[in-house]
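TICKET #2291
ISSUE: user wants both folds in one file
ATTACHMENT 1:
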Amino acid sequence: MIEKILNSMFHGNLKTKIFLWSVVLMAVSALILLMAGIILGNVFLGFGGVVAGLAGLITSQSVSLNDLQRAKKKKKKKKEKDKMQDDMPSDDSEGREKETEEASGEQKSKKERNREKAQYLSSLNDKKLKKIMKEHKVNQIHVKVMIDSYPAKNIEQAPAFMWRTDTMLHFMILTGQAEEFEVPLEDIKGFLLVKNVSADPDKDYASFQYSTFISKMFQPYLPEYFETTNNGQLERKKNTFRIEPGIYLTNSSVANLRKVLLPGVAFLVDDQVIASTRFNEYFKELYRSSLLCKNMVISLEEYREQIPKTLDALLDAPISGTEFVNTIYDLNKYRLISKNDVVTYTQRYRELKMSSH
């Protein structure tokens, strides 16, 4: 016990040292004062010694050494607990770490899918492909398309064969294997132009950057890229076309889509020009045709054939002379028709009005 007290006096914490040394000092003071009082015969010194002794006794009994040690241990445990809590991740950090792990897993699975797709596509030849098409009962009247993405099925940048039956539009997609799915024709109300999709031509369609049987077959259906600037930065973009239920086709595939769905299927555009009330339906008709031409859905010759059809309809339209002139000039302003078309149809409109009076 004495050894324990001595050790605490010299190696304990500050509170323990103060407690023990104060008791010792009061005990020593009590002895000195008592001895001095006895030797000198001074009652006051003796009384002071008694008071110092009582103070030391009361102090020593007010708290035990074990209490101080428990307090020390408790404080130490608290520090350890606080440190442990600091080291432990918070709920937010756990959530972020979990999201990072999930994103990493998703990225890994995407890379794995791309690797499997590249291996599968490079392994195909004419004989194997014919066998696969026979197994999936691909209709003899089919077309080739490139699916840019189909998020619902985790399909990206995959070649496909497409055909229709009475009520269904069928796809046989070549990814890591041949997959088939179908879409009810009644669900397809039209095909929607999706403009300015971010692209990376150096990384996109990696499986088609090598000379293989499949890459040569589907090369014509790769997307057409173009450049735009954003805050002075050059960006590469592409346009895609969406059909329900969320299948995105490359622009160069839509001509074949129209062959299967018939040319009369609606072409949908959601932009400021179509939404504007300034332009009438005759202007918008040629505008839509120009977008189809720019996106290689129809040829330049087909677009030129559409111009007189639309302008002839404009001549017969029940609109005012002012609206006719504004429409003709807007069409020329947006380079949808030539200046020669403006002169020709303005003259024809005047002749038509003069003959009607």
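ATTACHMENT 2:
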Amino acid sequence: MESKRWVILAVLLCLIASGLTCSAKAQKDTAKPQQEATAHTVAAPERDRNGCVVMENSRYLMYLDEKTLGISIEDRETNFTYSSVIKDEKSNPSWQGFLNSGVSVEFYTQKSTMPERVDLIGGTPAITYSYYTDGFDALLSYEAYEFQMTVEVRLTEDGMTAGVKKDSIAEGETYKLGAVYLYPMFGATKLGEETGYMFVPEGAGALIDLKDNNSRYKTPYTKKIFGDNIGIDKFAVSEFGRPSVTEPEPVTMPVFGMVYTEEQQGFLGIAEDGRYNAQILAYPNGVITEYNWITAKFIFREVYTKQTTASTGVPSYEKDPYMRDIKIHYKLVSG
């Protein structure tokens, strides 16, 4: 079992190296096209017997649930299927909606600096689809929040991509965009039903086991890619002006992953666009829900302390968002 673990981890690390080589010199997000041009639109997409839209390429089949934006990807060679939404009845309504939505967003209002997370179940946006031979675009219009954006999903020869172009984002006066989650439940597992681990890029890399933790963990792993924003993020200091705890290793690469050792399958998630203001989140089972899940959270506005005197201040969110294209690439591996 241990040999399998390290072989698959080595594959993931090779993918990390190859996927990031071309972008290592980049110092900021660029205004490049969000997705590769798609040659063929599809007026009447194929559907399976459950009503899900079916898209495919030479390696994968992708099934879309139009109500939740949930997708399942089946590997033609191994028949292994990756799912991206979870129907859960034990969690509270807020978490049920988040688990069962392909995309979720967070909003701030003028009355509060606590973000409101809105999923596709509770937020009930109008969804307009455009289909292609290798994927789809979904225009999400949240009338109650005066907000809209278009999510672009494409199958690739090594997995899938999901992204949002900044030009597709429109917000009103009351609700301001705080953050976007793109398929946070992709590949998630329940309790100890799968053997394997999650991979987080802290330092040289760390692994979080997928075994049943019996509710031992109470807080998730949350870390900014490339480190904290020292102009906004708070730091704990002692009375001597030194850190009260040892600082953890920084996240130096915009990647994360999950490996299922018995099936010899796994995926590597890469925050390709928007990574300079994003977080890696990893939730072991027992932290709020029964599921192991890992994702990147793309941040558009942050909360900071607005000084009112030399020594005091009040929390406030950024008025001007860090508006940019965002994209996540899920590379699937096997063997």
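RESOLUTION: both attachments delivered.
EXTRA DETAIL ON ATTACHMENT 2: Confidence is low (pLDDT under 50) at residues 1-8, 17-39.
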